[in-house]
Amino acid sequence: MSANVDTEYVIRGPQSFGMALREFRLRRGVTQAELAKASGLHRSYLSELERGSTTDAMRYLVLACRALDLEIVVRPRGGTA
Amino acid sequence: MSANVDTEYVIRGPQSFGMALREFRLRRGVTQAELAKASGLHRSYLSELERGSTTDAMRYLVLACRALDLEIVVRPRGGTA
DNA sequence: TACAAGTGTCTGAATATGCGGACACTACTA
DNA sequence: TAGTAGTGTCCGCATATTCAGACACTTGTA
């Protein structure tokens, strides 16, 4: 279990979300192009998303959550490893 | 009944995020106006956010996560049980 | 009744956004 | 060397977004 403690990412902003996304994508051996196809999003967008360079509204969501002492988490579906 | 599972919300889209946000806001006895002030977001925006009527980028995030079998969760900071 | 608080919703405008496509760069391999 | 795969990044554009303010409605209370 200690091997993959990173199965859960707390999202603090666009950057940490991007890092989590990339982490999981690589772990699954999926390319950006494949993920783009699977998600319906564009590869260039995914690229920027992973790098946190897009000003996605994730920022607003985090702001709202923070003000309520909430946190946003990304993790594998079904949960724990 | 079982007004307990509120410690963790799985986000499937803008609507469920809005529901979670409202749930926690009310639980804290905070008004939209107060949350707006605390978060720096606008009250009208928060109102639509809670109702899931805004097309916030949460949709894109969920799309990306779904394609990777990930889930997004909102919960109190510190992860109270 | 009168008043206030809380919320939903509308309009208008300025801005940011994702898309689409393209090119460059870096491994890696035949 | 030539070719391929994967990724970062840029531009232009049509669109969606948030903000700002206002009004209406409901509920509770004096």
Q: Which key features would you list for this structure?
A:
homodimer; 81 residues; alpha+beta; 434 Repressor (Amino-terminal Domain); two-stranded antiparallel ribbon; 2 strands; 51% helix; globular; DNA-binding
Descriptive notes:
Two copies of one chain form a homodimer. Chain A has 81 residues and is an alpha+beta fold. Chain A has a single domain (9-76), classed as 434 Repressor (Amino-terminal Domain). Helix content of chain A is 51%, strand content 12%. Chain A is built from four helices and two strands, in the order E-H-H-H-H-E. A two-stranded antiparallel ribbon of chain A has the order 1-2. In chain A, helix 1 crosses helix 3. The mean pLDDT of chain A is 88. At the A-B interface, helix 1, helix 2, helix 3, helix 4 and strand 2 of A face helix 1, helix 2, helix 3, helix 4 and strand 2 of B. Strand 2 (70-76) of chain A pairs antiparallel with strand 2 of chain B, so a sheet runs across the interface. Chain A binds a DNA duplex (30 and 30 nucleotides) through helix 3.
Task: Please trace the helix and strand order of chain A, writing H or E for each element.
Answer: EHHHHE
Q: What class do helices, strands and sheet pairing of chain A give?
A: alpha+beta
Low-confidence stretches of chain A: none
- Using the coordinates above, name the CATH class of chain A: Mainly Alpha
Subunit arrangement of the protein = homodimer
Radius of gyration of chain A: 13 Å
* Biggest interface found: A-B, 37 and 37 residues
